[in-house]
Write a structure and sequence with these properties.
The protein is an alpha+beta fold and 292 residues long. It is built from 10 helices and 13 strands. Strands 7-6-3-4-5-11 form a 6-stranded mixed β-sheet, with helices on one face. The chain has a 5-stranded antiparallel β-sheet with strand order 8-9-2-1-10, sandwiched between helices. The protein has a two-stranded antiparallel ribbon with strand order 12-13. Bound molecules: zinc ion.
């Protein structure tokens, strides 16, 4: 089964729901960045959160989520495009922490205090960035706060990652339920009641529930209209050509420095941890371009 993103509505389009299974996506991120369990959980929740926000993208553009806290994990950054391609990284992937007082991975302690930023680029001229101060650093609550304050829609966000004892990802995914202003307040209350009786979302996913099943569980006894299902995957558009352009943009002096001091150069893409190697001959060609 591939990872998927499902969208649905209820209450005459006044309730909007996105749910995603991201187990494979988070496992790929873990392998690429060699993350510790708590770093896998933090990065996985941010990857899942940004994916769930991609509701607003039509056929182009991107959404970037940045969680910048003062905790030992450092910043967590992820983006998604309209095709459901997601990528992301965490500043200190190897940091490991003792469990929190509930015996869970201490994502909030690892993130610390700071801000959450969402940048929306609809592929038009301007981009829009909104931000809120982090509530708990656990990502779900922070994203819900962002949606309430910045988009003024009461929202319920659950994102979760379950890590196996061998550090691989057992389950990951999330759901966002948003209530638009004209909706019936009773429905949100009903959804909150449903939530009281549900296991954590990562457990529901581990038990084999699909994104549709999760939506049906959260919106139990409410009529749901399913709109679309999309396959999603970890994908970074970086390639050597793009890296060459970045190297050229460093300028003539910087390139000369690299050639004289190091001879060759290895450049890493932050988002996907892919390494690109430039030989001395290649760097000299780039120097010619940069000198034009
Ligand atoms: Zn990349």
């Amino acid at each position: 089964m591939w990872d998927s993103l499902v969208r649905a509505t209820a209450d005459n389009n006044n309730i909007r729901v996105s749910a995603a299974i991201t187990t494979r996506l988070v496992e790929e991120a873990r392998q690429r960045h060699q993350t510790s369990p708590v770093a896998s959980a933090a990065l996985g929740r941010v990857l899942t959160g940004v994916l769930l926000l991609s509701w607003n993208l039509k056929d182009k553009g991107s959404i970037t989520m940045r969680v910048l806290g003062d905790g030992p994990l450092g910043g967590v950054i992820a983006d998604v495009n309209a095709q459901g391609q997601v990528r992301g990284y965490i500043q200190n992937p190897q940091v490991d922490l003792p469990p929190n007082k509930h015996g869970k991975l201490d994502v909030g302690g690892g993130i610390g205090q700071g801000n959450l930023y969402i940048t929306t680029d609809l592929g038009l001229k301007d981009t829009y960035t909104g931000s809120v101060a982090l509530e708990t650093g656990e990502i779900g609550e922070d994203l819900a706060k962002y949606l309430v304050i910045s988009e003024q829609t009461p929202s319920l966000v659950s994102v979760g990652v379950l890590v196996n004892p061998d550090l691989t990802i057992a389950a990951a995914g999330g759901i966002i339920v948003q209530a638009l202003p004209n909706g019936s307040p009773e429905i949100l209350t009903k959804i909150e009641e449903n939530l009281q009786n549900l296991k954590p979302i990562s457990t529901l996913i581990k038990e084999g529930n699909s994104a549709q099943d999760i939506i049906k569980l959260y919106l139990k006894d409410i009529e749901v209209k399913f709109l679309e299902e999309k396959q999603i995957n970890f994908n970074c558009p970086c390639n050597k050509e793009r890296l060459e352009k970045i190297m050229i943009s460093l300028g003539k002096d910087e390139l000369e420095d690299i050639i004289n001091n190091e001879g060759s150069s290895e450049v890493k893409c932050h988002f996907c941890n892919e390494h690109y190697y430039f030989t001395k001959e290649e760097l000299e060609k780039l120097l010619v371009e940069a000198s034009k």
